[in-house]
Specification:
Chain lengths: ~300, ~180
């Protein structure tokens, strides 16, 4: 017997047919994508934490809570800011991180977007309200003799077996065997006792903005209060908000940029001044900066492998 | 959980979003099939977060959220290319592998599915929305009213009218190409 046409079926049958159609509709799904990545809820959370939901009547602003390293939530690229499109300086009012956009030739205080904490020491070229950027260097140097990192203002060379003792905190390392242990380690007593691990450039670690250096991993102590970091970014530098182990991180790429942050004893200007592509993230009181030419995904993989 | 989210606990809010993200995506898709549902839902959840202090304590959260989602999706509904874009796409794979087919789906032949989808695509937005809310999302009349921002009494009458229009459209489709 032929099936009765839908339009002739009683209401209840038509309603059943509609309900039965539900599973056949190609509904959008919240992810994660087959390639991995956060689901919609994680993206929403990251966007809230990036300050996108702040409006009249928004709930109390939560502190930036760095989650301890745990299983990967993998990458989420949520924000891509093309600085070339920005006229003048603009500040990202992110809890725990302050990034300054603008022409490196201009004062970071232009537009009133920088307000380092009171009592911050000023650099020789700084101002009372923040350091002034210095001219961009011409990257035409050759590696200095000695272990990788020699010739860079990274402080004093230390042994890999004395990292924790020298740093005063637990220094973590990438667990990826392809990366292996660093080729040299340094501590800069004049710059917040920051520890830098250096890997030489080779076939698997292409050279960074520093000649002969394939990977630079800096670890330092700091608080996570507002105004923690300042970065001076020029044109053609982009900032992407990404996730490392589910925590917020920043991938800064393009042209070299300057780096400042608020350490326990005041405002710190990185002695190297200009750094290349970096992944920046924190876990508890320690902040990490990974400098690599491997690209964003590889940088996140390395960061998530650190133990 | 809602109280914690209202107090600014983003993790609590993330959990709420995760609980409702599926139905939110479906709502956005229903309201604006031609728009990017994920985009609309993300923005809607951001707005909802900002609006949480205005959420009446003790009220049901789901329709409140879905109303914001439906609004956001409606804002993205493009007037151009609407007729062509409205027919919701049937999943090529049919029912999802991870879901056991419901008794209803077993009685619907593929051909009938296609016919029904075509007919739905020819309904007015408000008719498609009310049918979708009731039969696809499984919302109650009260939830449908709040989600679609219409009086509770209107849900029943609009559903009835939409079903009537659906029959007419199905008949036209069944008998050959429809004129509209």
């Amino acid at each position: 017997m032929a099936e009765q046409p839908l339009h002739l079926r009683p209401d209840a049958a038509l309603e059943d047919a509609l309900r039965g159609l539900t599973e056949a509709i190609a509904w959008p799904t919240p992810g994660p994508s087959p390639a991995g990545g956060p689901d919609l809820a994680a993206v929403v959370r990251a966007r809230i934490e990036a300050g996108e939901a702040t409006g009249v009547g928004a709930p109390g602003r939560s502190r930036w809570s760095w989650r301890p390293a745990r299983r990967a939530l993998v990458v989420a690229v949520i924000i891509l800011l093309a600085l070339a499109a920005l006229a003048g300086a603009a500040g990202l009012g992110l809890p725990g991180l302050r990034i300054i956009f603008g022409d490196p030739a201009a004062s970071p205080t232009a537009g009133g977007s920088v307000s380092p904490p009171e009592g911050s020491p000023t650099s020789s070229q700084g101002t009372a309200s923040g350091p002034a950027p210095t001219p961009r260097p011409t990257p035409s140097r050759t590696p200095a003799p000695g272990p990788p990192g020699s010739g860079l203002p990274l402080g004093t060379a230390i042994g890999l077996d004395e990292l924790d003792a020298q740093a005063g905190f637990h220094v973590i390392l990438p667990s990826d065997p392809a990366i292996g242990p660093p080729d040299s380690a340094w501590i800069d007593r004049s710059t917040n006792d920051q520890v830098t691990l250096v890997w030489a450039a080779d076939g698997s670690l292409p050279q960074t903005s520093e000649p002969g250096v394939g990977l630079l991993l800096t670890q330092f102590r700091g608080t996570v209060d507002d105004g923690y970091f300042s970065k001076i970014l020029g044109q053609d530098t982009t900032v992407e908000l990404v996730l490392v182990d589910g925590g917020r991180a920043y991938w800064i790429s393009g042209q070299p940029h300057q780096f400042f942050y608020e350490g326990p004893r005041g405002f710190v200007e990185d002695s190297r001044r200009w750094v290349g592509d970096v992944l920046l993230w924190a876990d508890g009181p320690i902040t990490y900066r990974l400098e690599t030419s491997l690209g964003r995904e590889a940088a996140i993989d390395i960061a998530e492998s650190m133990r | 959980m809602i109280d914690r989210a209202r107090a600014g606990d983003v993790a609590a809010y993330e959990s709420l979003v995760r609980r409702y993200q599926d139905v939110a995506l479906r709502t956005a898709y229903l309201v604006a099939p031609e728009a990017d549902a994920a985009d609309a839902v993300q923005d809607a959840f951001l707005k909802a977060y900002a609006a949480l202090p205005r959420f009446r304590q003790g009220a049901p959260l789901r329709p409140w959220l879905l109303r914001i989602v439906a609004n956001e999706a409606r804002n993205r509904r493009r007037s151009a290319d609407r007729r062509a874009g409205l027919a919701m796409r049937a999943s090529i794979a049919g029912p999802r592998d991870d879901a056991a087919p419901s008794p209803e789906s077993e009685v619907i032949a593929d051909e009938t599915r296609g016919l029904l989808l075509s007919a739905l695509g020819r309904l007015r937005d408000e008719e498609r929305e009310v049918i979708g809310a009731r039969y696809f999302l499984g919302l109650s009349e009260a939830e449908t009213a709040e989600t679609l921002a219409i009086p509770a009494g209107t849900v029943k009458s609009r559903t009835s009218r939409a079903l009537g229009r659906l029959r007419v459209t199905l008949e036209a489709l069944d008998g050959g190409p429809a004129d509209g």
